[in-house]
Amino acid sequence: MELEKEIARAKVATGEDLSALLYHPAPAVLLALLDNPAFDEPHLTLLLSRKDLPTEVLEEIGKRKTFLKSYAVKKSLLLHPRTPRLIGLRLMKELYLMDLVQFALAPAVSAELKRYAEEQIVARLPQMPLGQKITLARRGPNRVAGALVAEGHPQVLPVALDNPYLTEAQVLKALAREKVAVHVVQGIAGHNKWSRSYNVRLAIVRNASTPVSIVLRFLPQMTVNDLRVMAEPGIVAENLRKYLLAEVRRRMLASQKHAERDLAGNAGKLAAEPQDNRGAEEKEDGGEGKGGADRNSGPEKADDET
User: Fold this and answer.
1) In whole angstroms, what is the distance from residue 10 CA to residue 192 CA?
2) Which residues, in sequence order, are CB contacts of 173 under 8 Å at separation 6+?
3) Fewest Cβ atoms closer than 10 Å to its Cβ: which of 103, 128, 151, 219?
4) CA proximity to 67, closest of 42, 50, 88
C-alpha cells in the first residue's frame, strides 16, 4: 500500500516534491513520473543523469516520441551506460557529429556500439568540410583517424598520423588498400612514430605505390626471411625484385665472410695455445734446471775447497 501511495503521488507531484521523487529507488514510481503532466524536459534530463537508472525506465523513455522530440533527451539517453542496444542503434543516426564522436570515445560504451558509431562518422566524411575533418583527425576515434589517413588530404594527413587513438592496425589497413596515394605512403614512411614499426615498414616495402628510394631505405632493416618471401614471383613488381634479390645476396655474402673470419680467428687461437703452453713448460724446466745446478754446485765446490 505504501508503494501504491508513492505511485499515486508521483503522478501528480509538482515543484520540490517532484524533484525529490526523481531519486526514488522503485522503478514503478519512476515510471509513474513519466505520466505526470508537470514532468518536463529538465526533469527528464536530470532523471537520465542517474547512472543507476533501471533498464525498464530507459526502455519506456525510448518508446515515447514526445520525449524524443528533444535533442537533449536523445543525447542523454544515448550516452546513458544502461541504454538498451536497439535504442542506442536507433538514436545514433540522429546525433550531431561531435556528440557522436563523444559517444564513440566514451569508455562505458560497448565494443559493438562503438564500432557502429565510428562507421557512422566515417560514412559522413565525404560531405564534411575541411575544418571538421581536421578536428576529427586531431581527436577522433581510431577508425575515423585511420579513414582520414587513407583519404590522404594534405592538411589532414599529418594531423591524423599524430592522433593518440590511431593504432598500428589502422595504419596497416590504410596501406593495404589497392590504390594508395604516393604522398600517403611518404607521409607514413616519414613519420617519427609509425616509421619505427617493423610491420609498417614491411607494409610500406610491399606497397606498389612506394617510391624506390623509400624501399631502398627500409631494405637493410628487413629480415632475410621477409626479403626472400617478397622476392618470390608475383609478390612485388619486377623492377623491385632485383633490389630484394641483391639485398638477400649481400646479406648472405656478409654472413659467409663473417663466419669465415670467426672460423679463422678460432683456428688461430687453437694453434697458439699449445705453443704458449710449451714455452711456459720450457721456461719452468729451464728455471728448475738452473736452480738445481746452482744448488748442486754449492756442496761440490765446498768439498773441493775443503
Assistant:
1) 61
2) 146, 150
3) 128
4) 42
